[in-house]
Amino acid sequence: MGLAGDMMQGLGLADPVIRLGVTGLSRAGKTVFITSLVANLMDRGRMPALRAAASGDIRAAWLQPQPDDTIPRFDFERHLGALTGPDPFWPEGTRNVSELRLSMRVQPRGLLKGLRGVQTLHLDIVDYPGEWLLDLRLMERDFSTWSAEVLERMAHRPGGPAYRDLLLGIDRDARFEEPEAQRLTAAYVAHLEAARDAGFADATPGRFLLPGEMAGSPALTFAPLPPELVASRLWREFERRFDAYKSRVVRPFFRDHFSRIDRQVVLVDVLGAIHAGPQAVEDTRRAMADILTAFRPGRAGWLAALMGARRVERILFAATKADHLNHVQHPRLAAIVSAMLREARDRADFSGARTEAMAIAALRTTTEDVIHEDGEELPAVRGTLMDGRQASFYPGELPADPAELLVPAHDGATRWLDADYAVMNFAPAPLTLKPGDGPPHIRLDRAAEFLIGDRL
Q: Are residues 123 and 272 in the same domain?
């Protein structure tokens, strides 16, 4: 919208706008979340927990051109076609910032209902990779601090030892050579990719995994170095590039996109982290806490709001893929994500922002089932695997007390002692949607009520 639009909105001269940020780490389901949310706001038959939808106060919803002409449009139609076509498949994940505007004609409730007619509310959804959001922590670090932190945690992660071995062959007195910089960067990126595939969430700089148009640029060609190389030409050049990355990549992202968010969804693949083991759970917990520190939670004062300096008012932490569990385990999944983010949530609540944690599935791919094993009835789900086979699946029993996972994770355990948690990759199920119904989901209506219900 820009500064002028923000000022007009603050003075009541323009239709109200909510800017909803959607982020999360890789494979958390950002693209599917946005696609299903928009489809279910346009066809609201499956949204009973969204009060304005259930009451009929949302009279109509439609897409229209977004206000930011320089940001790519979120390709809603193509993604919806992938999920709901005759041979459904998962769409490509988020690789850059994108935006979509959904406009709604809404009848105000309560006292305003008799004073004001139907009004238009714009929901501007901003999709961006969670890996980029982690980069905001770099603004408080210099190259030396960042290098020390990365080298310490990579020691026991996939690809870490190989990168550290590569450092042993560096001559501290050698002149700087670009091929050497590219070789080190390629090895470091290979480590980041392997660590991500193993379930680790913290991967900085985030653009190294999702470089977009910046691939191969000097600002994305550096890697962590040990303190023994502090006097080398390589160190000086990597330090310069690290500072350039912060000033020319991270800072503009915060200024142009992130700082204008009103409401925020943070999607977390908690089940994937649990399957990967205690270290991945602890890493995910730290990463999500770090993400929240990047927000400026709380309600902005009227002058700040008038000038466009928004503050995030509501933050939803959503554990995705709840359809991979029978409903009897959903409360335990929600309790785990809530406990994982306890410190971060308390910080946001103290600052005045409302936060919520819940277990959701933006697109339900399974039906509930029961597996009979050794005289027991196990609450399971049934769905279509990626190879087309039908299968019933029981992932194991999540603990009633989240501390049974979080304490060993925090203490550095390398594996779960008393349990084994499995994951399964389900394909989207073929759908036959009735008129007025969006795609099936789990608690997407509750998520929408928390995020925007007060403005409807």
A: yes
